[in-house]
Amino acid sequence: MPTGSGKSICYQLPALLLDGLTVVVSPLISLMKDQVDAANQLGIPATFINSSLDGYETARRFQEIDRQQYRLLYIAPERFIMPDL
């Protein structure tokens, strides 16, 4: 589907309607950042975790997730196979 056709609503809507954290697995770092920026502009607290972050920033974001500061988490697939990232 082309850009701008509404695919993101598939996971943004559950993040708005359901309690807890909605996890979106995305292999594209630049798309993650764009999606997080768009969600935050819509008032949906969102963050991403991928290889562009250093260890300190990754740990900080996981702490914020534990404190339930986000509704949407975009995460790279390698986080599931390489837990020390």
TrEMBL record:
It comes from the Bacteria. GO terms for molecular function: 3'-5' DNA helicase activity; ATP binding; DNA binding; four-way junction helicase activity. Residues 1-85 form the Helicase ATP-binding domain. Transmembrane segments: none annotated. One of its GO terms (biological process) is DNA repair. Keywords: ATP-binding, DNA-binding, Helicase, Hydrolase, Isomerase, Nucleotide-binding, Plasmid. InterPro entries: DEAD/DEAH_box_helicase_dom, Helicase_ATP-bd, P-loop_NTPase. Its EC number is 5.6.2.4. It holds the Pfam family DEAD. It is an enzyme of class 5 (isomerase). It catalyses: Couples ATP hydrolysis with the unwinding of duplex DNA by translocating in the 3'-5' direction. SUPFAM superfamilies: P-loop containing nucleoside triphosphate hydrolases. One of its GO terms (cellular component) is replisome. Belongs to the helicase family. RecQ subfamily. This is DNA 3'-5' helicase.
